[in-house]
Amino acid sequence: MARTRRAGQPDCDYDNGFEVGEIARIAAQQGRIVLTRDRELLKRRIISHGCYVHALKPSLQLRELNERLDLARSASIYTRRDRQKSARSGRW
Length: 92
Known about the structure:
The protein has 92 residues and is mainly alpha-helical. It has one domain. It is 52% helix and 7% strand. The chain has helices at 2-8, 20-30, 39-42, 58-69, 71-74, 80-89, and strands spanning 34-36, 50-52. Strands 1-2 form a two-stranded parallel sheet. Helix 3 (39-42) links the parallel strand 1 and strand 2 (50-52). The mean pLDDT is 79.
């Protein structure tokens, strides 16, 4: 899911090596929303914003989050192809 999220929203942090406490600390310090299947992680007081992801498959996880968090409304009006064209032409 993280790879798919990064493609649509570049401000996504993921690393299998993060310990649970480190995830909570980073989320608190950087004001991040934690998306996880670990309910115990979401119960930590230090995490102010989090979302339990029910789906198991990454494609279904992305669909679930898009629907639950209404991400389509906040998506950029530009497509990935438009961004690539802008970057090549120096208008980015």
